[in-house]
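Q: What residues go here?
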């Protein structure tokens, strides 16, 4: 797989437009999920220029995403049918009480005007499928849905969800990599391509990235370095690695595990 990172050109973020008419307010896995949703909108940026994020379901997963999107400055409208939860989160972010499994309710909410919808309902398979199907019928450009099992995920994909996440499985996979090796953080992007945070192997300490030939020898790319007490900086071939640095490294999961396992 081609490495998407280029030492000569630091990666830039994609900005999510803020629509008129939707309010905004105050704001580990939730941040990642919200960030991924925001970045995913860039694929249809022209079409979704004036669209916000419609979030359905205020369980722990949905609430965390709503708060994070608000904190990141993205407009979000939450929909929840439980009056107690609506009362609990009133004032934290824009929300309405409605049953999103009813297509008429979504139409009245203007669901067609949103560029992204997130179905955070997971415990009720029927509600999850009905809501996702309603959004598909309304032509929502990007639908993200939470699943609680592989079977649930397959159903959501089949009825038209563009992105399906399994939070518990993803968290378990991440923790397994952290407790079984020398990795300090682990994020799998897609198809085995992964980004990790780690300490530098002894053989790289005191040398520049170019001198160590890390990409050539190990098949991974150092994309950022954090010296003690300083901010992360984008790595170049001239970046010198010290023993107490933190590295952000990208590559295939197996190659990263081997690189991190070196003394």
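A:
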């Amino acid at each position: 797989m081609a490495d998407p990172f280029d030492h000569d050109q630091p990666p830039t973020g994609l900005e999510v437009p803020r629509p008129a008419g939707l309010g905004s307010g105050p704001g580990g896995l939730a941040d990642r999920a919200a960030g991924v949703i925001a970045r995913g909108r860039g694929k249809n940026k022209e079409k979704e220029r004036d669209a916000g994020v419609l979030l359905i379901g205020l369980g722990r997963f949905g609430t965390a995403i709503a708060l994070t999107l608000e904190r990141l400055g993205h407009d979000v409208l939450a929909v929840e049918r439980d009056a107690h939860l609506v009362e609990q989160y009133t004032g934290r972010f824009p929300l309405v009480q409605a049953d999103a499994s009813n297509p008429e309710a979504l139409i009245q909410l203007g669901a067609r005007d949103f560029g992204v919808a997130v179905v955070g309902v997971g415990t009720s398979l029927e509600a999850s499928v009905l809501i996702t199907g309603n959004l598909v019928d309304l032509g929502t450009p990007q639908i993200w849905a939470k699943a609680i099992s592989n079977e649930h995920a397959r159903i959501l994909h089949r009825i038209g969800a563009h992105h399906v996440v399994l939070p518990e499985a993803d968290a378990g996979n991440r923790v397994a990599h952290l407790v079984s090796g020398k990795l300090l953080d682990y994020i799998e992007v897609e198809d085995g391509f992964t980004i990790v945070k780690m300490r530098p192997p002894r053989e790289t300490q005191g040398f520049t990235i170019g001198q160590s030939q890390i990409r050539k020898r190990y098949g991974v790319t150092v994309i950022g370095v954090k010296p003690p007490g300083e901010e992360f900086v984008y790595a170049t071939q001239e970046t010198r690695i010290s023993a107490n640095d933190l590295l952000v490294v990208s590559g295939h999961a197996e190659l990263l595990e081997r690189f991190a396992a070196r003394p």
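A: Context that may help when evaluating the design: Residues 125-137 form the longest helix (13 residues). The two ends are 26 Å apart (CA to CA).
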